[in-house]
Specification:
This protein has 7 helices and 11 strands. By secondary structure, it is of the alpha+beta class. The strands form 3 sheets. Strands 2-1-11-10-8-7-5 form a 7-stranded mixed sheet. A hairpin with a 5-residue loop joins strand 10 (189-196) and strand 11 (202-205). The longest helix has 24 residues, at 92-115.
């Protein structure tokens, strides 16, 4: 059934400084409630998460409904997150939205677990409040957040229903470097992550 315990999301993390302590390969345990929380909070500062009252409550229901509609926690010896039959039958644009949503949520979970980021905020929403400065160009990273040990982290999040391409990896590498300063500080870490369904599911981070 759905809430049998944590699934194990295989991560392939490269290029992180040794000082971060991020393992190159590991299985990240993810409970359904972990993902439900990340689906809702990712991108917002805590003071904005419920500011719209009833509308915020309905938004939470909408986002969390992604789990039973589109995802299963498999019963394999090493439990994995898999797609439901409904998810596999979505049209390409709907699959793209699901992959986008999961990519952002897993980016948040990875940042909390591996980089001690308290919460991520959308670059587009909070750039002015935090005095972000950018490298030239139109594409920008998705998120930034502050570590509990000090310093800022910048992240670009992607999601795909199939394999990752070389072109996507190159775009991720470029976008993660687009935020130059936050409140006058150079980010301590800039990384990009892409979640995709494979056998088993893998979430590469660079």
């Amino acid at each position: 059934m759905f809430f049998n315990g944590p699934a194990h999301v295989r991560t392939d993390a490269t290029l992180f400084p040794a000082s971060t302590g991020v393992p190159v390969k590991q299985d990240l345990p993810v409970l359904p409630q972990d993902l439900a929380r990340a689906l809702f909070i990712t991108g917002r500062a805590p003071y904005d998460q419920t500011k719209h009252g009833r509308s915020s409550a309905y938004e939470w229901c909408h986002r969390v409904a992604v789990l039973p509609a589109y995802l299963n926690w498999s019963d394999d010896p090493i439990r994995r997150i898999t797609r439901t039959d409904l998810a596999r039958e979505l049209d390409p644009s709907e699959k793209g939205m699901l992959s986008y949503t999961l990519g952002q949520a897993m980016c948040q979970i990875f940042a909390e677990r591996q980089l001690s980021v308290r919460f991520f905020m959308h670059v587009a929403r909070y750039a002015s409040a935090y005095n972000l400065t950018f490298a030239p160009g139109r594409s920008r990273a998705d998120f930034f957040g502050e570590r509990t040990v000090g310093g800022y982290v910048v992240a670009e999040a992607k999601g795909r229903s199939g394999p990752l391409t070389k072109k996507l990896r190159e775009a991720m590498e470029e976008q993660k470097r687009t935020v130059k300063t936050i409140k006058g500080e150079v980010p301590k870490i800039a990384y990009a992550s892409a979640v995709h369904f494979s056998s088993p599911p893998i979430a590469p981070c660079v």
